[in-house]
Amino acid sequence: MPAGTQTIPVGAGPQKKYTVQQQPPAGSCHYRKTASGEPLPDLKCTPGATSPAVTQANLKTTICRPGGYTKGIRPPVSITSKEKKLNAPLRLHR
């Protein structure tokens, strides 16, 4: 792996029950930049994760399925709305 790169952690995958996640403190998120100067999110504040439910063998029935994948795995609006409100005071600093 090239220097300075990180592996993406494996997440829990789709859940039967979601909970509101703790948000980082206001002002603690900072942009980082690519070699070409493009801004990228702070990995501590927007870490991302891979899903253990998605494999090379099942891409056609997961990621590439007709009708879309994200709708089937996204937490309900009752969770994402609360997280958005908690994140509203956060400002990303350069």
Structural notes for this entry:
The chain has 2 helices and 2 strands. The protein is mainly alpha-helical and 94 residues long. Strands 1-2 form a two-stranded antiparallel sheet. A hairpin with a 5-residue loop joins strand 1 (32-33) and strand 2 (39-40). The protein is globular, with a radius of gyration of 16 Å. It starts with 31 loop residues before the first strand and ends in a 7-residue tail after the last helix.
Order of helices and strands: EEHH
Helical amount = 10-25%
The overall pLDDT average reads 81
User: How much beta, percentage-wise?
Assistant: under 5%
Low-confidence stretches: none
Overall outline: globular
Radius of gyration: 16 Å
Distance between the termini: 27 Å
- Within the largest sheet, what's the order of strands? 1-2
Largest pleated sheet: 2 strands, antiparallel
Total of helices = 2
For the secondary structure, the number of strands is: 2
Oligomer: single chain
